Amino acid sequence: MKNYDNVVVFDHPLIKHKIAILRNEKTSMKEFRELVEEITTLMTYESLKEGVPTVETQVKTPLESCTQYLVKDDSIAIVPILRAGLGMVNGVHVLFPLAKVGHIGMYRNEETLEPMTYYCKLPEGIEDKLVLVVDPMLATGGSACDAVDLLKKRGCKKIKFMAIIGAPEGVSRLAEAHPDVEIYVSTLDRCLNEHGYILPGLGDAGDRLFGTK
Ligand code: PRP
Ligand code: URA
To answer: Is 170's pLDDT higher than 90?
Structure first.
């Protein structure tokens, strides 16, 4: 895959360790869910290093007063792509407990691999917030591109996208379609199979999170 200015692939030993366990077909639903949350928190810490609005405040320590910075309340919105994106919400909330949550429901047509949008409910004022779109899997990129299109139509201007595993096909498609969106993936896998699944991947993230298969 070529290099894109708006793509960051994490290369962190602690995240790699957790992804190795996440991929394992023997990992239980409970452990899978916990790992998705933990990886999300680590990714959030890094991907929100820049762009988070802060407010200046004066703090009096036992010794003197100093100027400090607090994260501006309510300046971030989390938008999971249902279903699997739901598994990442708590991982962001650990760091941003006041972030409001918008939901975009999409599923891929298993034959065409085209995403179908079946639900959308976004918080009021989302257009003025930093929007963090989360989905564990970025495969063909169809769902991610459509979700970002939808948010832009709603007026959102600052959007970051976070996926745990990306396929080169999907990362390139999203990076090219939305060069103004910063894309963060924990790992870049090899390719997609003929059914649009990421290889080596981890299987169906929604099914593994919610025990539906
Ligand atoms: C998965 C995943 C993404 C999408 C990625 O969802 O969570 O939303 O596929 O594929 P794409 O990049 O090719 O669009 P899925 O459609 O399986 O729905 P689910 O979360 O309800 O299981
Ligand atoms: N969605 C998943 O859950 N897994 C994949 O490998 C691709 C899309």
So the answer is: yes
